[in-house]
């Protein structure tokens, strides 16, 4: 039987090309993402290890505010006096104080580089002269020697076209923007910059003065004397530092950095792998369909084998063996291609601003094993059902005339499909509208998906008829043939369309969610944007512009009020809470927070305002106290001075600038809402504000529409990255359509010959196959859009309850998806149609 | 554009084959399927082409049908030299001016009987001439099965639909390749009567390849082919006369 399998395989190799490609591409994508994430991880593990290689111990404050969602913890600073105590410890050979803060470079056109609120952070620090303790290495120029000197990272130098000796303006928290001289350009280990972050490195005093506070440092790196271990050094130093200061060994710091980074890229790994899984599921459908058709076409051959004495088991094994061989070969090729895909994805990420230093790709044995296993198993599973169907053929079928056309609409299928879909929809609805558990909803979603796929063959014929109904009017008999051919084998049509359905479903789901987010954000901005213009820093929580800007704006004759806000955080009740920092005097003139109790103007250095719903659920009343913990100042008690009802702009807590500044050093304004005086035209008001913000390179003046665009363009960027990822799944689905057509054309050779003989022109034949393909593609597209929008609606409702998100169908995009679906179908038909048109009429007619 | 109806029998040849040579294969293994065939087919007549297997009768029919090309020589249909026409012109010629009946599987399985009959018109984007269509359809004797798919028709019914399709455009010439080869004798007789009627009552021209003397006896004229050459002819044949002639030709 092995030889039969092999011969069978070799005999119709061309028809297995699509199976091969489907597995190959899916596995390549999966292996590629694994290679990429392993490479990133290894690169940065090495990088962190190498940059802290010389550090034997690190002294820092133990007080910290845990970062949210993988963000770095923020820590309190140390007094520089710790340095004297530490450097006197026996066993310390060298020490280097470290300062880090916000610093944003300004390019030669006067524009601030980077957007710290959305992209990589923009850092500043001090240049460390102790060899082995500085993670940066000078690539050109020299270290800063005066208060006017700065060393910048090589990535920023490249992007901003800065060379050693150039003048560069830098935005810093404590001083007005001013020019510095680029004394040197540095790399971070082998990388141009750590993960695309920008760096400005000054001498210690300048760094303290401009970014921190004089006499305050973030930490101290230490080198041990020979013979003193890291642990020993840390233990000795720990004895001399004051309470609240901790000492970590170099190894611990490396581990901490690596773990932190690993946590950060977990999301990325999941993100990529999700798309690889989608591609593999779509590929599974293509494989299932190809094997179904191949086996249907070879039923006579199977029957013959059975007739001459092969057992059912042998026939089954021969087919499964074929699937195994195809799966294995294409998985091997997929893993190999995956290495190239890994390199490609790395380039793609670089295009989106995530720079990864050039190092060799990491291919772990696990990657190879996972790739081979997943590819082979997917192929086997997808080919199993058709193989079992094939093995069931009775020997007598060898003698019978062909006409093996199974209809898809078995009663069992109908009942199971309707039941699953119905129950699934009910479960999803009860989760979204009622109060069913999340797991019920998720299970319901799976049931809907399985139900719809199961119903495919039942509805394929009627739906194809419906979709195809306008075509005969347009194309006459060519259209009739296209429609009838799309309907003639419902199971095949459904199987082919299902692959596309999954891909289009995910696209529609994402599109529906994105449009809902965009609509909701626009809506929120419309409701909260009570001023005339907003001055935006592009920063969120980190960085921003000096409070002096708001003062200046308030002095403009055109401006009625300008109120600055900051996005901050503190720890309360054991978890990190967001806080909106406001100016209590100016805010009410521009924004209405709907105060329900107390007065915002009472917010002084020891008061907070609370969202009234949260206050009610926590049992807080006016005058009650709340303990908030800050990294720098520790636990602080605040009195509840006001309650507000509006929580679309403000989180649970609102605090005055005075109170926040007392606890968080170097905090900056991140946005300023500006309201013009009555009688001042919008143009005049805006011009005045534009003029006033000129000295602040990171300040952009935005009207309501522009502010909305800032957010929607961010969502669009994420959406387009996802669409790029989904292209592969769609490509595999289209290959599936092309393959089905190819096999169908092969099956209909005689019929095509006949049509050509009685006068169908080549272009008519091609057109007919194109329309058939368009019908199949539209069938999948309609199903995908339907499912995607339904799931999108369910998700938005599920998520949106306390997030102010309302469902908004992406009508325009959906129309585009329909049109593209049909066009893609047409594109998939090009090759099979050309092949059909080239058939020799006489040979075709002679084919049975 | 309306096609030229061939309503009256005429002696002018509708199809003409001049010195036709068809060679298959390369030099060493070359087979001369047609070896200098010259023959005329007059309008309004029913001609049978007979000959043993490999005599070239099917090749001749395929070349007449614009489905195959000659190695040398010429085929004229309604005065046009097929050798000078493009693939597309030939396709349209087949659609508008020729009719076909093959041995089996003549019909498109996804189309109903009536859709199969009007297929060439539909491909041309033309409406059927109502009167002519009624005439053709009534002679098919399908009754209420016109809306049925081929799989629901008997072999004889299917071949009648095929003949009706060949007639529907009122072609210059209908070419039939063993049209009764797959049928029982009763259905065969029906089809042959039907074809005979098409010639004698509707004025059509038919050329039919067959190896069955009974079938050939329905024709007005029999052309005998052997080894790619026309070796004999018989007018107003009977089955016995044909058999005698075959024996004398050593077939």
Quick summary of this structure?
The complex is a heterodimer of chains A (848) and B (251). Chain A is 56% helix and 16% strand.
The sequence of SSEs of chain B as H and E is EEEHEEHEHHHHEHEHEEH
In angstroms, what separates the terminal alpha carbons of chain A?
Answer: 28 Å
- Counting DSSP E segments of at least 2 residues, the number of strands of chain A comes to 26
How are the strands ordered across the major sheet of chain B?
6-7-8-3-9-10
Low-confidence stretches of chain A: none
Low-confidence stretches of chain B: 1-10
Overall pLDDT metric of chain A = 85
As a percent range, the share of strand residues of chain B is 25-35%
Globular, elongated, flat, extended or rod-shaped: what is the shape of chain B?
globular
Radius of gyration of chain B: 18 Å
Rg of chain A, alpha carbons: 33 Å
Oligomer: heterodimer
The coarse silhouette of chain A is globular
How much β-strand is present in the residues of chain A? 15-25%
How many strands, which pairing sense, and closed or not: the largest β-sheet of chain B?
6 strands, mixed
Structure classification of chain B:
alpha/beta
Number of helices of chain A: 25
How much is the average pLDDT of chain B? 86
Number of strands of chain B: 10
């Amino acid at each position: 039987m092995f030889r039969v399998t092999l011969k069978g395989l070799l005999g119709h190799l061309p028809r297995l090309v699509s199976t091969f490609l489907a597995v190959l591409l899916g596995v390549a994508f999966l292996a590629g993402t694994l290679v990429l994430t392993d490479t990133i991880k290894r690169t940065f593990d090495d990088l962190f290890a190498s940059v802290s290689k010389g550090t034997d111990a690190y002294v820092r404050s133990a007080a910290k505010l845990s970062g949210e969602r993988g963000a770095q913890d923020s820590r309190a600073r140390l007094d520089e006096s710790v340095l004297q105590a530490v450097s006197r410890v026996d066993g310390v050979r060298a020490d280097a104080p470290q300062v880090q803060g916000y610093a944003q470079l300004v390019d030669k056109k006067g524009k601030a580089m980077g957007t710290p609120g959305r992209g990589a952070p923009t850092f500043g620090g001090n240049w460390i002269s102790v060899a082995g303790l500085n993670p940066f290495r000078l690539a050109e120029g020299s270290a800063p020697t005066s208060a006017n000197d700065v060393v910048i990272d090589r990535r920023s130098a490249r992007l901003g076209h800065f060379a050693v000796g150039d003048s560069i303006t830098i935005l810093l928290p404590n001083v007005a923007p001013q020019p510095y001289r680029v004394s040197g350009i540095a790399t971070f280990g082998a990388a141009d910059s750590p993960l695309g972050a920008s760096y400005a490195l000054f001498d210690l005093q300048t760094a303290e003065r401009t970014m921190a506070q004089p006499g305050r440092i973030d930490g101290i790196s230490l080198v041990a004397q020979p013979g003193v271990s890291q642990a020993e050094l840390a233990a000795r130093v720990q004895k001399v530092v004051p309470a609240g200061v901790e000492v970590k060994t170099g190894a611990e710091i490396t581990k901490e950095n690596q773990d932190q980074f690993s946590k950060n890229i977990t999301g990325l790994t999941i993100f990529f792998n999700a798309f690889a899984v989608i591609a593999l599921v779509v590929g599974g459908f293509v494989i299932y369909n190809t094997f179904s058709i191949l086996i249907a076409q070879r039923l006579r051959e199977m029957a013959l084998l059975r007739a001459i004495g092969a057992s059912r088991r042998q026939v089954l094994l021969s087919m499964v063996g074929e699937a195994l061989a195809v799966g294995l070969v294409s998985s091997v090729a997929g893993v190999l291609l995956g290495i190239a895909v890994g390199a490609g994805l790395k380039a793609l990420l670089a295009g989106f601003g995530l720079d990864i230093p050039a190092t060799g790709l990491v291919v772990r044995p696990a990657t190879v094993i996972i790739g081979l296993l997943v590819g082979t198993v997917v192929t086997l599973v997808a080919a199993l059902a058709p193989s079992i169907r094939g093995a069931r053929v009775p020997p007598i079928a060898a003698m019978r005339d062909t006409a093996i056309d199974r209809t898809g609409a078995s009663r069992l299928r109908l009942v199971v499909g309707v039941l699953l879909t119905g129950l699934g929809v009910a479960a999803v609805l009860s989760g979204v509208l009622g109060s069913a558990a999340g797991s019920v909803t998720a299970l319901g979603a799976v049931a809907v998906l399985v139900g719809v796929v199961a119903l495919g063959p039942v509805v394929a014929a009627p739906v194809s008829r419906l979709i195809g109904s306008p075509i005969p009017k347009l194309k006459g008999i060519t259209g009739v043939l296209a429609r009838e051919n799309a309907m003639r084998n419902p199971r095949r049509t459904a199987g082919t369309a299902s692959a596309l359905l999954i891909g289009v479903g995910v696209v529609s789901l994402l599109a529906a969610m994105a449009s809902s987010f965009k609509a909701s954000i626009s809506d929120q901005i419309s409701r909260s944007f009570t001023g005339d213009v907003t001055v935006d820093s592009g920063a969120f929580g980190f960085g921003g512009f000096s409070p002096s800007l708001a003062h200046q704006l308030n002095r403009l004759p055109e401006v009625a009020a300008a109120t600055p806000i900051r996005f901050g955080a503190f720890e309360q009740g054991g978890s990190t809470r967001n806080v909106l920092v406001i100016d209590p005097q100016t805010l009410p003139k521009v924004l209405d927070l709907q105060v329900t109790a107390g007065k915002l103007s009472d917010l002084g250095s020891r008061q907070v305002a609370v969202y009234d719903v949260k206050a009610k659920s926590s049992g807080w009343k006016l005058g009650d106290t709340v303990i908030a913990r800050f990294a720098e100042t520790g636990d602080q008690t605040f009195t509840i001075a006001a309650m507000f009802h509006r929580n679309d702009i403000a989180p649970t807590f609102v605090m005055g600038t005075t109170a926040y500044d007392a606890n968080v050093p170097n905090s900056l304004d991140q946005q300023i809402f500006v309201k013009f005086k009555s009688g001042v035209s919008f143009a005049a008001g805006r011009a005045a504000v534009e003029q006033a913000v000129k000295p602040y390179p990171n300040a952009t003046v935005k009207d309501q529409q522009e502010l909305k665009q800032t957010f929607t363009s961010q969502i669009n960027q994420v959406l387009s990255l996802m669409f790029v990822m989904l292209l592969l799944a769609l490509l595999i689905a289209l290959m599936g359509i092309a393959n089905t057509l190819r096999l169908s054309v092969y099956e209909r050779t005689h019929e095509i010959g006949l049509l050509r003989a009685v006068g169908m022109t080549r272009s008519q034949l091609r057109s007919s196959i194109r329309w058939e393909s368009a019908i199949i593609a539209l069938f999948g597209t309609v199903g995908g859009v339907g499912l995607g929008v339904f799931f999108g609606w369910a998700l938005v409702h599920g998520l949106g309850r306390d997030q102010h998100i309302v469902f908004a169908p992406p009508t325009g995009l959906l129309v585009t998806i329909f049109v593209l679906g049909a066009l893609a179908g047409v594109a998939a038909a090009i090759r099979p149609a050309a092949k059909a048109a080239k058939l020799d009429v006489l040979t075709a007619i002679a084919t049975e | 554009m309306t096609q030229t109806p061939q309503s009256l029998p005429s002696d002018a040849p509708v199809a003409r084959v001049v010195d036709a040579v068809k060679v298959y294969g390369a030099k060493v293994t070359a087979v001369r399927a047609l070896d200098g065939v010259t023959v005329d087919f007059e309008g309004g007549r029913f001609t049978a082409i007979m000959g043993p297997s490999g005599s070239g009768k099917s090749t001749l029919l395929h070349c007449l049908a614009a489905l195959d090309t000659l190695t040398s020589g010429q085929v004229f249909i309604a005065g046009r030299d097929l050798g000078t026409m493009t693939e597309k012109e030939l396709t349209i010629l087949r659609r508008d001016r020729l009719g076909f009946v093959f041995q089996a599987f003549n019909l498109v399985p996804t189309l109903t009987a009536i859709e199969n009959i009007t297929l060439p018109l539909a491909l041309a984007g033309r409406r059927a001439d109502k009167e002519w269509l009624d005439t053709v359809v009534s002679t098919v004797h399908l009754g209420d099965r016109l809306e049925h798919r081929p799989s629901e028709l008997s072999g004889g019914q299917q071949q009648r639909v095929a003949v009706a399709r060949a007639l529907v455009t009122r072609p210059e010439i209908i070419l039939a390749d063993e049209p009764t080869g797959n049928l029982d004798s009763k259905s065969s007789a029906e089809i042959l009567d039907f074809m005979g009627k098409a010639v004698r009552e509707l004025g059509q021209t038919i050329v039919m390849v067959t190896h069955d003397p009974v079938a050939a006896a329905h024709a007005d004229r029999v052309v005998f082919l052997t080894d790619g050459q026309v070796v004999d002819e018989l007018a107003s044949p009977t089955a016995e006369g044909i058999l005698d002639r075959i024996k004398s030709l050593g077939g």
